[in-house]
Amino acid sequence: MKTRITELFGIKHPIIQGGMHYVGFAELAAAVSNAGGLGIITGLTQRTPALLAEEIRRCRAMTDKPFGVNLTFLPTVSSPDYPGYIRAIIDGGVKAVETAGNNPQKWLPAMHEAGIKVIHKCTSVRHSLKAQSIGCDAVSVDGFECGGHPGEDDVPNFILLPRAADELTIPFVASGGMADGRSLVAALALGAEGMNMGTRFIATKEAPVHENVKQAILAASELDTRLVMRPLRNTERVLRNAAVDRLLEKEKTLGANLKFEDIIEEVAGVYPKIMQEGAMEAGAWSCGMVAGLIHDIPSVRELIDRIMAEAETIIGKRLAGMLPG
Question: Do the beta carbons of residue 48 and residue 12 sit within 8 Å?
Fold first, then answer.
């Protein structure tokens, strides 16, 4: 299948694996790239640029296909060593970067000079247009369904994607609610050039996370996510557990007086405990509503092959069959 996204990143299938904290290691990124998609290493999961450089080397040893690095620009006082991370990406010969968070404008010239294509994660049309105007090569448009940070506008993909298609000239992929061939065909129909999957890729054999995490996604329905940190305007969609219930109770009790310090126990530093140790009640962790569409734990190649076969059947037979001969 050829789209502007497959052409841009030099990949076989228009499927991107999103950057996910303590999930996007070399094993998963390489598996996605080897299966024809674009695998992504999560940059800030690696605590230093030197560790990221090593992770890029590990990934390079596992695949000869294109892969990318996610770099989230955080609005923090003590900023990570972004120049160091960018240098590791460039020196590692990576040709695709998924940026997220704050505006990546100041880092674009160095990346473009190195021949890197940049796709920026956006939760609104206005942010997508801004990304286009500063020179991003593509955007990942995240609907309200997505795991992690869906923004504050609450616009689902059935509206957001065609709105993006009406306004953008650069290619974009759909993110949030993406799980199978139906998702891909729907995204293409609504104007996207491919799809970005996060939660679906956690429930695969190669995802380097604890089995408890995969089983939690399998057991969850589309009704089992919650929105936290909304009063702080840092909304995150997470899978419901005891820690999330505690967090929501604090939000309800404290109301307008809520501060980040009040919920730090439930949200800070929880990812290693959950993803690596399988301590499922340790805190709030990102999960999309798409959990309701996930019923197995295939290999990454089985998943991508299945998605593409299903998409081709829908387009070539089901939809084509609805047209008069």
Answer: no
- The rounded distance, in Å, linking the Cα atoms of 301 and 37 is 9
**Which pTM value belongs to this model?**
0.97
Helices vs. strands in the chain: H and E counts, helices first: 14, 10
The dihedral formed by the CA atoms of 184, 15, 3 and 72, expressed in degrees to the nearest 10: 120
d(CA 249, CA 239): 16
Q: Which residues contact 203 (CB under 8 A, 6 or more apart)?
A: 214, 217, 218, 294, 296, 297
| Per-residue b or e along 144-179, where b marks 16 or more CB atoms closer than 10 Å to that residue's CB | bbbbbbbbeeebebeebbebbeeebebbbbbbbbbb
pLDDT digits (tens, 9 = 90+) for 180-191: 999 999 999 999
Q: If you search the block for the tokens 């499927």, which residue do you land on?
A: 15
**What is the secondary structure of 219-250 as a DSSP string?**
H--TT-EEEESGGGT--EEEE--HHHHHHHHH
pLDDT tens, position by position, 115-133: 999 999 999 999 999 999 9
Give the type of residue at 78.
Answer: S
